[in-house]
Write a structure and sequence with these properties.
single chain, 8-stranded mixed beta sheet, OB fold (Dihydrolipoamide Acetyltransferase, E2P), D-amino Acid Aminotransferase, Chain A, domain 1, alpha+beta, 3 domains
């Protein structure tokens, strides 16, 4: 097993045969992982997701290269001095996979000394079922045989560096090089790409590859008109757990809903918010009904306008459509969402903890599902985990419950202004939470909320964190001194009314 200068071989962990993985600290070039993460973040920021119905309406006139999209793991191939390794944005380094050897041989034969190539690591299909990204994760983490490792293939789609220099400026030129090096490859190859002269051409390719052949989607690239990720819309059923009302001239209408999916232990995992797809009549009717369903909640979330959701009894199921699910950040970290339990005896939501789930791209409301109930089967989390890799999706969320936080200080102040009551609250607590890899909890948190019903944005917040008790107390005192001036009076809550903040 050769390191050839790219890796500290002492950090490698054998998975099967010669195949091994390593942490990013094993890389001799410590700039490699940040470059991979920055590329993914840059491309994600420039790529515009749309559905088939928007191809002619949203894609500007231009010539495009249209590539077949694979349902795999974004991966970078690093080739240097005859050796090929790969790195994903999460920092997992892989070496000595069959496709690594194939890539090294083909690049060396082309006279390439060094290259950094971006692509998709995917699993070759063995049946009518299209493999998904979690199939990649399963094989790469726990391979059962050499034959299984040989099912991992690499579809190259961009060239980032060549022989220590920047690559050609245009995508067409980079694509020509990838096609020249890998066109005859079996384990490594360029993503299948066809030219399109306009939106109608893109639509035709989408129909053939996605609607007829079952591909995940297509990516249309133009050096002048940008990049578009085009996918079919998918549907899922979710529980309505909260809502916000529109403001200003749309007051009295629903702004959006907060949705969750159900875990097998009957807890609810917050998934997304949906604000599109409603008619004004629906917004009016739904808001009226939801206002009669409100309950207390330990958990608070705000919408895009920083307005807090009013939580409701988990009784409604709605169907939404979406373009994509993303289970990792651009740096490869899991997308963690809050898991809640609902207490039927004392109606309200209790915090369980954050666990991995996904971000929903372009959610749209379709309809209420009055034929379904909020149960683990009707709003099952598998609707998400079958599409993307969701660690711990089948686990009981309660077993991951962390120690409760300890409230160190709490002060509430009130002030009347033009007939309205304004409230400012200052909290200081110690989290008592471990650093377990899923969440990076600070040791101390100082939290400030400012509520005024007369403002356009009624609720404003500020938060400070620290691992030093001395520093967090200074920050807490500074927030209080800055925001409490003449006219503000301390508010003392009755012991029976004072909420328990220990679960934060």
């Amino acid at each position: 097993m050769s390191s050839a200068g790219q890796l500290d071989r002492g950090r490698l962990e054998i998975r099967l045969g010669k195949y091994a993985t390593a942490p990013p600290t094993a890389l001799t070039d410590l700039s490699l992982l940040p470059r991979v993460q920055d590329y993914r973040r840059h491309v994600a920021g420039r790529m515009y997701p749309i559905g088939k119905e928007d191809i002619r309406r949203k894609i500007p006139p231009a010539a495009y290269q249209v590539s077949r999209k694979f349902d795999g793991e974004f991966t970078a191939l690093s080739f240097q001095d005859g050796e090929a390794i790969s790195v994903n944005p999460g920092g997992t380094v892989r070496v000595n996979l069959p496709w690594h050897q194939a890539a090294a041989e083909q690049l060396a034969a082309a006279g390439v000394r060094q290259a950094l190539i971006m692509g998709e690591l995917y699993v070759a299909a063995e049946s009518a079922r299209r493999p998904r990204v979690h199939d990649v994760v399963k094989i790469a983490r726990h391979p059962s045989s050499e034959d299984e490792l040989a099912r991992l293939k690499f579809a190259a789609f961009d060239l980032v560096q060549l022989n220590g220099e920047d690559p050609p400026e245009t995508f067409d030129e980079c694509w020509s090089l990838l096609a020249k090096w890998f066109d005859d490859g079996e384990l490594i190859h360029p993503v299948e790409t066809k030219p399109a002269q306009d939106a109608a051409g893109i639509e035709k390719i989408f129909h053939n590859w996605v609607e007829k052949e079952g591909a995940e989607g297509v990516v249309a690239r133009s050096d002048t008109a940008g990049m578009y990720k085009i996918k079919p819309r998918h549907n899922l059923d979710a529980a309505v757990i909260g809502f916000t009302e529109a403001s200003d001239d749309r007051q009295g209408l629903l702004h959006d809903m907060l949705l969750a999916v159900g875990r097998s232990d009957e807890s609810l995992h917050v998934l997304t918010r949906v604000g599109g797809g409603f008619s004004d009549d629906q917004r009016r009717e739904l808001l009226s009904d939801l206002k009669d369903m409100t309950v207390d909640s330990e958990y608070t979330e705000v919408n895009s306008d920083h307005v807090a959701y009013q939580m409701v009894r988990p009784e409604w199921v709605v169907e939404i459509s979406y373009l994509d699910l993303v289970s990792q950040t651009t740096r490869g970290a899991p997308v963690n969402r809050m898991v809640l339990s609902y207490d039927q005896q004392d109606p309200g939501y209790r915090v369980v903890r954050r666990l991995p789930l996904a971000s929903v791209i372009s959610p749209q409301f379709i309809r209420r599902r009055e034929d379904k109930r909020v149960t683990p089967s009707d709003v099952r989390i598998a609707q998400v985990s079958q599409m993307v890799d969701v660690p711990l999706a089948d686990q009981n969320a309660g077993q991951f419950t962390t120690p409760k936080s300890q409230m160190l200080n709490r002060e509430v102040y009130v002030k009347e202004h033009r007939g309205s009551l304004m409230v400012r609250k200052f909290l200081l607590w110690e989290t008592n939470k471990p650093r377990d890899g899923n969440d990076e909890f600070p040791k101390f948190v100082a939290y400030y909320t400012d509520f005024s019903s007369n403002r356009k944005t009624p609720l404003q917040r500020d938060i400070r964190v620290s691992d030093s008790r001395e520093q967090i107390e200074r920050l807490w005192n500074a927030m209080r001194e800055k925001n409490i001036k003449a006219g503000w009076k301390p508010y003392e809550e009755d012991a029976d009314e004072k909420p328990d903040d220990s679960d934060k």
